[in-house]
Design goal:
Strand order of the largest sheet: 2-1-3-4-5
Bound molecules: 2-acetamido-2-deoxy-beta-D-glucopyranose, zinc ion
Structural class: alpha/beta
Number of helices: 12
Order of helices and strands: HHHEHEHEHHHHHHEEH
Number of strands: 5
Distance between the termini: 60 Å
CATH superfamily of the largest domain: Carbonic anhydrase
Catalytic activity: hydrogencarbonate + H(+) = CO2 + H2O
Organism: Zancudomyces culisetae (Gut fungus)
GO biological process, one term: cellular response to carbon dioxide
Helix content: 40-55%
Protein name: Carbonic anhydrase
Enzyme class: lyase
Strand content: 5-15%
Number of domains: 2
């Protein structure tokens, strides 16, 4: 590094700060969230006592594994109004479950085998960018294209039915819901899920959809609580409409 006078150094420091402000905006979002956190955490302590935090230090015992989309408009803890320790959460693009993805698989295995969670909620949402993109993946980065490929395949398999729906909005919403149904089936065939049922431990897998339009969480009624239940109970209804997973 070349020597520069303190004055030159100060000047470049100021221009660096000015540049940072231009790039990230003022005030910096991290400063803001740290400040918000301070207000929140001290507020919780004054309302509920320090036990609000310390009572959870022994470990977690959530009842629910939530699998949802990373979309910033789908804040699950907020719309389910849950508090600390209640929900084990996994979010990715398109609330996906891909059996060769160690990220999602480790979350599911940990939730079932170590946390003994007995309910999984696979939650899609309206206006899902991942689902939209899957219908037309041409220009996407390889990472995204690969990740959402199962949704693209689902669309292609059911293209005739989906394309016959009158609006883009309805086509997307239909694929969002069909994809959640597919994922309930995918989840029901995972090893740790089958193991849990084989051991006689309770496990229910739900398919839900959150609507950005009104904040409602809706049950798609494709719940499975035992092996092969999806194929016996829910698949025939889809086949009857000419649909396939
Ligand atoms: C959220 O849950 C808390 C704790 O159960 C409850 O006191 C509160 O009223 C709920 N909030 C809303 C908006 O329902
Ligand atoms: C796991 O949860 C089930 C109920 O869902 C309960 O019967 C069982 O005892 C729990 N196992 C452990 C090790 O906590
Ligand atoms: C699921 O079942 C509930 C209760 O019967 C019903 O209100 C809801 O409309 C059903 N949802 C769908 C998508 O069929
Ligand atoms: Zn989404």
């Amino acid at each position: 590094m070349r020597y520069s006078s303190p004055r030159v150094a100060m000047t470049s420091l100021f221009s660096a700060i000015a540049l940072i402000h231009t790039v990230v905006g003022t005030p910096n979002i991290i400063d803001t969230v740290i400040k918000e956190d301070k207000t929140w955490s001290t507020g919780q302590v004054s309302k509920f006592g320090v036990e609000y935090f310390t009572s959870h230090l022994g470990g977690q015992k959530p009842d629910l594994l939530y699998i949802g989309c990373s979309d910033s408009r789908v804040p699950s803890d907020i719309f389910m109004n849950v508090t600390l320790g209640e929900v084990f959460t996994h979010r990715n693009i398109g609330n996906s479950i891909i059996s060769r993805d160690p990220n999602t698989m480790s979350v599911i295995d940990y939730a079932l085998n170590h946390l003994n969670v007995s309910t999984i909620a696979i939650t899609g949402h309206s206006q899902c960018g991942g689902v939209k993109a899957s219908m037309n993946p041409g220009e996407l980065e390889d990472s995204i294209k690969t990740f959402i490929k199962p949704i693209t395949k689902l669309y292609r398999k059911n293209k005739k039915y989906i394309d016959s729906l009158p609006t883009d909005q309805e086509r997307q919403q239909f694929l969002v819901e069909l994809n959640v149904k597919r994922l309930v089936r995918v989840a029901s065939k995972l090893q740790s899920v089958k193991d849990r049922w084989r051991k006689g431990l309770p496990l229910a897998i739900y398919g839900l959809v959150y609507k950005l339009e009104d904040g409602s969480l809706n049950n798609l009624n494709v719940t499975v609580t035992k092996r092969n239940q999806f194929d016996r109970k829910h698949l025939p209804a889809l086949w009857a409409k000419g649909l396939t997973l």
